[in-house]
Amino acid sequence: PQGTMAFTGKYEFEGDENYDAFVQKIGLSSDKVEMGRNCKIVTEVVQNGNDFTWTQHFPGGRTTTNTFTVGKEADMETFGGKKFQATVKLEDGKLVAEFPNYRHTAEISGGKLVEVSAQTSRAVHKRQRKSPK
């Protein structure tokens, strides 16, 4: 292990906060929202220095695996199945990735894997007016 970067392990779902508000903001379809809400995902992380294999095991046998090296661009896949490219960085012992419409951080705290997804895009309200005739 390299100080604060010992991520290797298997982590079972324990609980989450603000799930519904977050997934609605990022535009996840209602079937995916429902699937994710009661989904006891097991996250398995294999770390070799700066190289990571991050696998999420969903009930029913489906898995999503992202393989990346800290500081290098990698092909990734979101929980909803969208593919994109991101560069995972290390900031204050946390892995940080910019997903298409949110920022995801992961850290080991008290022996637990703590992941936080924060919305980065802002809602913009645009109003048009026409001039009276």
TrEMBL record:
Please give the Gene3D superfamilies that the UniProt record associates with this protein.
2.40.128.20
**Which PANTHER family is this protein grouped with?**
FATTY ACID BINDING PROTEIN
Family membership, please give it.
Belongs to the calycin superfamily. Fatty-acid binding protein (FABP) family.
Domain Cytosolic fatty-acid binding proteins intervals:
9-26
Q: Which organism is it from?
A: Sylvia atricapilla (blackcap)
Q: Name one Pfam family in it.
A: Lipocalin_7
Extract the InterPro entries matched here: Calycin (IPR012674), Fatty_acid-bd (IPR000463), ILBP (IPR031259)
Q: Return the protein name.
A: FABP6 protein
Molecular function terms from GO: lipid binding
